[in-house]
Amino acid sequence: MLFCAMFITNAQVRKWTLQECVTYAVDNNLTIEQAELDLDNARIDKSDAIGNLLPSLNGDGRLTENVGLSFNPTSQEPVSTQLNFTGNLTSVLNLFDGLRNIRQLQRAELNTISNIYRLDDLKDDIRLNVANAYLQVLSNKEQLKVFKAQYAVTEQDLLRTKELVESGVVPRGDLLEIEATAATQEQQIINGEGLVLISRVNLAQLLQITDYENFDIADQEFEVPPSDILDNSAKTIYDKALTFRNDIKFSESNVEIAEKDLKIAKGAYYPRLSAFINYNTRYSDQNLNPQDLSIIPFTDQLWIFDGLAYGFQLEVPFFNGWSARNGVKRSKIGLLQAQLQLEQNKLELESNIQQAYVDVTTFSKSYEAAEKTVEARRLAYDYAKERFNVGLMNSFDFSQAQARVDNAEAEVIRTKYDYIFRLKILEFYFGIPISLN
After folding, report:
1. According to its UniProt record, where is this protein located (predicted)?
2. Are 170 and 305 within one domain?
3. Which CA distances in Å does 99 have to 113, 264, 269, 323?
4. For residue 187, is it left (φ>0), alpha (ψ between -120 and 50) or beta?
5. Residue 272 · residue 99 · CB < 8 Å
6. How many angstroms separate the CA atoms of 202 and 134, rounded?
7. Is the domain of 72 the same as that of 218?
8. How confident is the model over 185-217, as pLDDT tens digits?
9. Does residue 229 sit in the same domain as residue 202?
């Protein structure tokens, strides 16, 4: 029964690949969902701007009862009570307003594009964060495997040392030293399991998954992927990044929006010309038919007393409390801020690419050095083990040789995944999608 329960529990654990993690994070991240809502709002703003170019059409009606002295609207005779209804239907078309409506539409289109760039930039950041967290889990898992493999070797050494102690070849103190080494490695395994768990939780949180116990990544090892990214100079990578990076496109679109805002603000200096047409009608319970003095029916009065008015309206801004002038000044400041932000983002991008380029070179050399070091440490350990087995080396020196191998193997794993991540960052700046294949 216990075996069945363990099998069912393990069967529930889903093994996630990097691509699955990236896709899930992009599809379910709350920040991205908020950015998508901002994009929806930008599209609604565009619809508003289109509507402002169309003629408006509004109707109104008013029903009143007058008590007291009033006059019949038809005969102009005084009456004591009167029930009136008036109705209007008005359409207004903006002919010229300093081109502000047209520029509002252009601004809305730019704002929609800007929000798309912002959304894509957020997705880029999440992809990088997920890749880093995923590689951290892989690194910790590989280190845990090394710790367990080292402990298995130490257990064999422990059995061998017991035999040597019993046969009188080595003193009992050597056995105690090996037992101490085994205890240290057990502690390393416990710490390694904790690091694996923490890194898994961190990755799950990026994916906004709360079922940590049943979340894990695919059991696979990755070697350093081949890449020719360093065949390109840092400047070449930067120049290409400027052509497609969403954060740069986002800043450039904000400059265009600020330029459009300035033109919209300047439009307030110009007169506004609009055309209008109005249809109106009325009804009164005092309107009598002259033939039989009966009240003219409601629908008949609407046709009899209706009217049509149309014309043009011109508004000329002479003085408005400096609001137009101050609006232009604010827009100029906004444009300068957007331009400065664009330059700042370009400088940050160039700095990040330069740093990533140096990191790839540095971690590549560190990884190569770590591989050479571990190879040398293993040879030294094999030699030390031969000497220890025949009693030519004490247990302390032998445990030191093993510790140096352990540290060298752990350093290989750390530098390997540091190098892989830096390599992927640099490739990402060059437009290569994140993949460990």
Report:
1. Cell outer membrane
2. no
3. 21, 8, 11, 18
4. alpha
5. no
6. 9
7. no
8. 899 899 999 999 999 999 999 998 888 888 998
9. yes
